[in-house]
Amino acid sequence: MNIKRRLNQLLFAAVAAFSLALGYWYSQGSQQNQVPAIPSDFEATVFPEARDLVPFKLVDQDGKDFTPDNLKHKWSMLFFGFTHCPDVCPTTLKVLQEFKQELPADIKAKTGVVFVTVDPNRDTPAIIKEYVQYFEPSFQGVTGNLGHITAFTRSLGILYEYVSMGEGKNNYGVNHSGQIILIDPQARLRAVFPAPHDPDEMRRNFIKIVEFYRG
User: Fold this and answer.
1) pLDDT tens across 35-44, in order?
2) CB atoms within 10 A of CB 165
3) pLDDT at 16
4) Full-prediction pTM beyond 0.90?
5) Angle at 128 between CA 122 and CA 81, to 5 degrees
6) What is the full DSSP assignment across 24-62?
7) Tell me, what DSSP letter sits at residue 81?
């Protein structure tokens, strides 16, 4: 790995860490003024008040519109990456596979995993469908217009940048944020799980969050 690419990855890690710290500060500040208070043992950045998603219109793995309505009536774990990703994406999708596999049946039935590409030029609906379903048939892939994807990722604090890997227009990689975004059944931002991810730890925290907001 060359020095420039390594520095870019370190910069992304630093910015992501800052974003999470800012989210934690927001969470703690709001906790003092809002009810109900969030338990202190959540190992995730959980927002006391859910945050509405900005309107968006993307394309799912079957070529159909994908909007906030597609995230309603279930809990959704969103991860952003690309199918040519050599390590972070397959590793995280494997974690999400193991995370979902062992959920209690009632919670599992109302939990979805959505993989949103940040490389729509190469990740067509057919390609992304084959990619995500290799890990788990219930996983859903989403692509779309690059401008629409960028607006959506920015609204969630997800960062990415293209990095040339040599000659050729398709010879590039993508540095991107590694956090997993939790969307609640009302299609609102509820929590952020920072990397690195452990399936058992994430499952424990997810169940706590679901049970806490289910009352």
Assistant:
1) 456 666 777 8
2) 12
3) 53
4) no
5) 75
6) HHHHHHHHTTSSSPPPTT-SSEEEEEEEEPPP--EEETT
7) E
